[in-house]
Amino acid sequence: MRVVMFGYQTWGHRTLQALLDSEHDVVLVVTHPKSEHAYEKIWSDSVADLAEEHGVPVVIRNRPDDEELFARLKEADPDIIVANNWRTWIPPHIYNLPRHGTLNIHDSLLPKYAGFSPLIWALVNGESEVGVTAHMMDEVLDAGDIVQQHAIPVGPTDTTTDLFHKTVDLIAPVTIDALDRIASGTAEFTRQDRSLASFFHKRAEEDIRIDWNWPADVLERLVRAQSAPYPSAFTFHRGKRLEVLSAVVSEGRYGGTPGRIFYREGEGVVIVAGADARTGRNHGLAITRVRTEDGRELPATEYFTSMGGYLTGRP
């Protein structure tokens, strides 16, 4: 098939590479300009550079809603559009233009975790598996019929970085299998169960601020979810920002006030956690490694030279 590809960052780059390696013909690529947004500077392999290396025409757009782009698309005469990590709305006159419509590749097990940062949200929420879905685009974001989907389990120590590397390797087989099924007329289109759908927003500073009223197991997953190169989860100690780089759920149960710097346990320092911590039935969060406001990284047992005092959500 003649394919136009809409994509951005490493997800788009992997999709374009899969298309270039396939029997399909990539006739045009549309991608976003480079961004300074913290999350968009991560996994930022250039779709434009890859396309140009292979002699594929490239159009740069923030939004695909102008007449010049529409004319370029009609001239390209695609059988299908393939999109991955396109960050803005694609209007119906574009996604319905090709004979086979538009196939979108999304890094979640739709209908769950439509929208943005699905791996981080899924890990924070304690999902047992994540994956990649190829679905047809319609008027509702990430809601069209599913063509192909593949899941992988989430391990007990997996970080979002681990899950990224596992799921990004699924892009090529999921994309090409879906395309081949569509081209051959053997694709089965599965309607999404909208009663199971969830939609998540982009991650921002407020989403990585530690709330010590959360249970320790949720906080431990938040720390793993915000693994490097993502911005680290943070709290405040004596009015200064303190990033938590690694932590585990404590073995013991610790009662008191959430945020209390309480006890050395193993290689960590336990912080009281959970809204009902006063009952003494809660595990705490044992912080093992931190980064200070001036950029120093050190074991928590070296940073917390004495017990007592509190970690807080605000200075």
TrEMBL record:
<dbReference type="Pfam" id="PF00551">
    <property type="entry name" value="Formyl_trans_N"/>
</dbReference>
<protein>
    <submittedName>
        <fullName>Methionyl-tRNA formyltransferase</fullName>
    </submittedName>
</protein>
<keyword id="KW-0648">Protein biosynthesis</keyword>
<dbReference type="Pfam" id="PF02911">
    <property type="entry name" value="Formyl_trans_C"/>
</dbReference>
<dbReference type="InterPro" id="IPR002376">
    <property type="entry name" value="Formyl_transf_N"/>
</dbReference>
<dbReference type="InterPro" id="IPR011034">
    <property type="entry name" value="Formyl_transferase-like_C_sf"/>
</dbReference>
<feature type="domain" description="Formyl transferase N-terminal">
    <location>
        <begin position="1"/>
        <end position="170"/>
    </location>
</feature>
<dbReference type="InterPro" id="IPR036477">
    <property type="entry name" value="Formyl_transf_N_sf"/>
</dbReference>
<dbReference type="InterPro" id="IPR044135">
    <property type="entry name" value="Met-tRNA-FMT_C"/>
</dbReference>
<keyword id="KW-0808">Transferase</keyword>
<dbReference type="InterPro" id="IPR005793">
    <property type="entry name" value="Formyl_trans_C"/>
</dbReference>
<comment type="similarity">
    <text>Belongs to the Fmt family.</text>
</comment>
<feature type="domain" description="Formyl transferase C-terminal">
    <location>
        <begin position="205"/>
        <end position="306"/>
    </location>
</feature>
